[in-house]
Amino acid sequence: MLEAIHPATQSDTTFFLRDEGAILLVSCYELGHQPLAIANAAASLRDEGFTPGVRDLAVEELSDADLDRAAMVAISVPMHTAMRLGQRLIERIRTGHPDTIIVCFGLYATLNAEHIFNAGGDAVIGGESDGPVRAIANLLDAGGSLDAAALPGVMTPGNRHPKPAGKSSFPSPDRSNLPVLRSYAGLERDGTIVSAGYAEATRGCHHTCTHCPITPVYGGRLVVVPRDRAIEDIAQQVEQGARHITFGDPDFFNGPAHSMRILREMRSRWPELTFDATIKIEHLLEHRKHLPELAALGCQFVVSAVESLNDEALLRMKKGHDAESVAEAITLLDFGGVPMRPSLLPFSPWETMESYICLLRFMARQGMTRHIDPVHWSIRLLIPPGSAVLDDPDTQRWIGPLDEDALSYKWTHADPRMEALQRKVSAIAEDGDACQQDFHETFVSIWAAAHEAVGLDVPDIPAPKVNRPKPPRLTESWFC
């Protein structure tokens, strides 16, 4: 067993990186799902003979003893909330364990690389992380230096522009040391909650929506997870008690033929297993022939990033749809027997009071008030460092300074009423969630608040074109 020296400090402290827990993998938050990124990293390391410790801070504590054992801590930060929690963890590690190697990986690691290095991080890895994490472990185990090695896919303070990482080996995810599935969000349907697993058919995305954190990291690139690996991962989660699978692909129809093959095999092996997936409006229209089969294969709902109906907002975000296409997609899913659960981004610099009220009216007419988690009516555009929104020349007209603590750029809407309404709607949604209020009742309050904000009498909510039953939902709201 080889001894390794901390390459950042070149101290005399030695450790054995292949000891159990000497490498610690930490997930901060993954929207209530058992963390796949950690499972992939654990598998990649175990294939090389390492025995990493695993902790998910969303459902369990990280003890001082865990950190005392760790010579290297790899922190998964696939989303903004996780990065905010991750920065606190970096501070904790650096305070008590100054020689520990700190690696951050995931979408928001790349976007916040400068902040991570300034806080004391040693390495940053983007979306395709299992190979680079393994490479770092092997390097340190052999006593190498991160900066001197210039590993592909690994950004360090001395190597800000590494060569791209090689193709993933796609290890079969190792979930053996993660908390059990019942610790995580489940699927609520017909008054009962069943355990939900989480899998991916693809990573990255062909599309380059400007507000999406995937765009600056993958740049329109799609990575296809081999079908046998996806099925293996689903199988182990079924063995753990999963009765439903959330496909976490940014867009499940980036590779529709591949995704449909996975679904057909899944249905053949586990006829009672259901699923949900995220599919953009544009792809629902383009691949409409698949929608009836989605229902037959067990689809409980489709999440689709409607975001807004404001033409300028949709154009600036490069969404590729308009209000008419949203209505058509809802109708197509209706015919296919699959509910849509729209996700929204209704507070951006391009939105107006009028377009916000139009969005409320549209969704009411479509009968979607129980299909939208109320938090979505309050979501405000987040602009992290590196966001593609910053590449739009129009952005300079309204963008503010970077808030180092919040890890995002400040901006203020030109209409102060929009700022006040966002705060009001956020409070309404939070109060409704706290008392488990019916989504439609929360919508009624938001409807009133929006009209009052522009000084209008509150009209009756439009009657829906279609009376829709309450759809199944995950017990933790989906948003970035």
Describe this structure in words.
The longest helix has 19 residues, at 416-434. Strand 1 and strand 2 (14-15) form a beta hairpin. The chain has a 7-stranded mixed beta sheet with strand order 16-15-14-13-10-9-19. It has 17 helices and 19 strands. The chain folds into 2 domains: 4-155, Rossmann fold, CATH 3.40.50.280; 181-474, Alpha-Beta Horseshoe (pyruvate-formate lyase- activating enzyme). The protein starts with a strand and ends in a 6-residue tail after the last strand. It is an alpha/beta fold and 480 residues long.
In short:
By secondary structure, the chain is of the alpha/beta class. The chain is 36% helix and 17% strand.
Helices and strands: which structural class? alpha/beta
The CATH topology of the largest domain is what?
pyruvate-formate lyase- activating enzyme
State the shape: globular
**Poorly predicted sequence stretches spanning 5 or more consecutive residues:** 1-14
Percent of residues in helices comes to 25-40%
Instruction: Quickly count the domains.
Output: 2
Number of helices: 17
What key attributes describe this structure?
480 residues, alpha/beta, Rossmann fold, pyruvate-formate lyase- activating enzyme, seven-stranded mixed beta sheet, 19 strands, 17% strand, disordered N terminus
Task: Give the helices and strands, then pairings.
Layout: E1 4-5, E2 14-15, E3 23-27, H1 36-46, E4 53-56, H2 64-69, E5 72-76, H3 80-96, E6 101-105, H4 107-111, H5 113-119, E7 123-125, H6 130-141, H7 146-149, E8 154-155, E9 186-189, E10 192-199, E11 202-204, H8 214-218, E12 222-224, H9 227-239, E13 244-247, H10 256-269, E14 274-278, H11 281-286, H12 291-296, E15 299-307, H13 311-316, H14 323-336, E16 340-344, H15 353-365, E17 399-403, E18 408-411, H16 416-434, H17 439-453, E19 473-474
Parallel strand pairs: 3-4, 3-5, 5-6, 6-7, 10-13, 13-14, 14-15, 15-16
Antiparallel strand pairs: 1-2, 7-8, 9-10, 9-19, 11-12, 17-18
